[in-house]
Amino acid sequence: MIVKLIDRALLKVSGPDAEHFLQSQFSNDIKHIREKEIQINAYCQHQGKIIAIIWVFIKNSNYYLSFPVDLKEIVLTKLNMFKLMSQLDIEDYSALINQYGVIGENINNSFRINDNLSLLTTRECILDCSNNFEWELACIKDKIPEVYKSYSERFIPQALNLDIDLLGVSFAKGCYPGQEVVARMHYLGKPKRRLFCFTSKFEVCIGDNLNVNDTTSLKSSGQIIRVAKKGSEFQFLAVFEVRHINDHVFLNNDQTKLVNIIHE
């Protein structure tokens, strides 16, 4: 299945300093990007909170950055601020190149995200419409996190499972914004919140809260970050307190609206 992704920005970064510059900005090891593959990166602020999750790939020796379009101005501003005297160009290709999510198919010239999902970029228009819910369902099933403007700078990479199997974080590369905080959690701490899949028969939205009885947290026990509807059921990803994964979980402090965590 091919799905048109209409809500993603695309930046092109080129020039002799492109690799070194991106290596200094993102959480993963840019030097290890493989041909025809997407590398997932967190773009963090100085406290280690994620501004955006960015898919990075290489095409014709240039770097491309794909991420939600509502963060485009924020990301562009931050990249240009740190660019300084580096020999590189940052260009906005969002309106020039179409982005398509590919589910369960092998398509030439696509860039693999994992064994089931890939990204196809082309100047041609393959589809005029989008079945975006199918893409969201696939990403939720594979626990691919996303960060939108509404909750930018809220979570550290570990809360979105980006450290698991080094999905989006390298602990062997050099410095980047927030690196000390992220590394300290990895080596000295244990994340209190992780990313989990849930289902609900009640309508849920990005930004909704999850609660449990008798929590000692001053905040809600979880926040929903990605949602899709399948038939009469909602499936979603939420950052949730690890110690409550076996408790009854309900939506927005309403104890009549129980949701179910998917245990793997």
Total of helices = 4
What is the number of beta strands?
15
Output the helix-strand order: EEHEEEHEEEEHHEEEEEE
Q: Uncertain spans, ≥5 residues at pLDDT below 50?
A: none
Q: What is the CATH homologous superfamily assignment of the largest domain? A: Aminomethyltransferase beta-barrel domains
Which architecture of the largest domain would the CATH scheme give at its second level? 2-Layer Sandwich
What's the CATH class of the largest domain, please?
Alpha Beta
Largest sheet: 6 strands, antiparallel, barrel
What is the end-to-end distance? 25 Å
Q: What strand order characterises the main sheet?
A: 10-13-12-11-14-15
Strand content: 25-35%
Helical amount among residues, as a percent range? 10-25%
- What shape does the CA trace take? globular
The CATH topology of the largest domain comes to Alpha-Beta Plaits
Number of domains: 2
Q: What number is the mean pLDDT?
A: 94
Which structural category fits the helices and strands?
A: alpha+beta
The radius of gyration computed from the alpha-carbon positions, rounded to a whole number of angstroms, is 19 Å
